[in-house]
Structure formats: structure tokens, C-alpha cells
Amino acid sequence: MSQALHEDIAASAEHQAIARATAALGKPPSEAPVFTRPLDEGVDVLYPFLPESLHRTRFSDGTRYGVWHGSRELETTVHETAYHWVRFVRASCGDLDTELRSDRRVFTARVRALLVDLRGKEKRYLELLHRSDYAFANEVGRYLHDQGQNGVRVRSARCDGTNVDVFHPQALSDVRDRVI
Fold this sequence. Notes:
This protein has helices spanning 13-24, 33-36, 74-93, 135-146, and strands at residues 68-71, 107-111, 116-117, 151-155, 162-166, 172-177. The chain is an alpha+beta fold. It has one domain (32-177). A hairpin with a 6-residue loop joins β4 and β5 (162-166).
């Protein structure tokens, strides 16, 4: 069962807001923190649009621009997050033989932009869905970013769902915690 992030230490909405503000004190400044820090602790995708945080993703080679990733369906979000979290832990801890638990926040956000719809294109371009080799998708992302596109809608490589990959933080609005 899900709960608000600070619910266990702050019962009222006012106290939860204070807890969130306090937790944010140690984070680098950001013009849109709710978008740039959606995954919180423990992953390598904390600040996708900040230059010091660029990294390789499906639609960015990590050298010039960041990408904000979201999923249309909650189940897809869980599959995507679990896949990347397991990769991160294995890369960080090797053959660690213990149970790990992680708390995650889920946000809803509105994308107010036209996106290039790549769903169905994977039938002709199988490389769009490659689970670990992002070379082809990086080329597609670079081309679309350089053409001034806002981002893409694409089939998930992890499950039967839809992902949204946004190239510009200005395309995102109306962010809210989703309590499940």
C-alpha cells in the first residue's frame, strides 16, 4: 500500500510540505525541481535536464541534452523503474546477495506539447525497442532534438505500454504526487 512520501513522520499536509522543503535543501538548484528530481534517492536519473546530470538514455547519448521519461500507465512505470533500478544496483553492488527494498514516488504530469509518435515504428525499426543497445534510438533522439521537437511517444521496451520521452522541461506542467 502506498503512502505520501513523508506521511510516517508528518501527519498534516502542512508538516509534509515542511518535510519536503527540508529534504530539498541539500539538492542542487533547479528551475523545475518536481520534474528534475522525480525519482529521488538511489538512481542515476535524478536531474535529467541539468548539464551536470546528463547521462545516456534511450533517446539521448548523454552529451548535449537530457530527457524526462514518463509512462502512460502505472504498470509501465513500475516495469521501467524496476528494470533500471536492478541495472543500477547490479552495476553498483555486483553480486550482492541480499534483499533490497526501495521506496519510490510516483508523479502525474501533463505534457503540453506535440510529440512525435513512434508507436508502431518498431515493426520496421526493431532497434527502437532494443533493451540495452540504444545506438539507433540515440540517433533518432538526436535528430528530433536538433529539429526542435519536444519529444516522443514510444512503445516501452520493458512491457506492453507507452512511454513519453520529453526533451524540454517547459513542455511539462501540472505535476502532482500520485498516492496509490
